[in-house]
Design brief:
By secondary structure, the protein is of the alpha/beta class. About 25% of the residues lie in helices and about 30% in strands.
Length: about 150
């Protein structure tokens, strides 16, 4: 992957997401971004609405523990793929729907249904999937072809 001139990084997370927990158990995503900006000032961190299309393109997108909370995960995933720059990579995680019992989640994907969702929304991309944390979470690495 080649470096872009603006060195942007897209971050989506929820208050209970793993990325936010990296900074603190009780911070909101916006506060976590402020910490990230202070630690890595050379990177342009942005917080955008996952439902709203944008013409912005990013080399790297993280969407960690978000899609299971959304009413329209297909829309969000489509927008994520559209925002990937050529040769860009997105890293996504969701709980494994076979064992997830959190009442705040409205979507539950088994490893197989997770892959179907990704393939339905990831045309012209290479998609690798698997499990993390002893099978507790599905992950995906989506690589957009040049």
């Amino acid at each position: 992957m080649t470096a872009s001139a603006d060195r942007s990084l897209k971050v989506w997370s929820t208050e209970d997401g793993h990325l936010v927990r990296t900074f603190s158990h009780h911070l909101e995503a916006v506060n976590a971004l402020a910490i990230a900006r202070s630690q890595l000032p050379e990177i342009d961190f942005q917080y955008l609405d996952v439902y709203k299309p944008t013409t912005a393109q990013f080399d790297v997108i993280f969407c960690v523990e978000v899609l299971e909370h959304l009413l329209y995960p297909d829309t969000a995933l489509h927008n994520i793929v559209q925002m990937l720059a050529p040769n860009g990579v997105a890293l996504l995680t969701v709980p494994n729907g076979r064992i997830d019992t959190f009442e705040g989640h409205i979507n539950f994907w088994s490893p197989e249904s997770w892959k179907v969702l990704l393939e339905r929304n990831g045309e012209s991309c290479d998609i690798d999937t698997g499990l993390l944390e002893e099978g507790a979470h599905n992950f995906a690495v989506i690589s957009k072809k040049a």
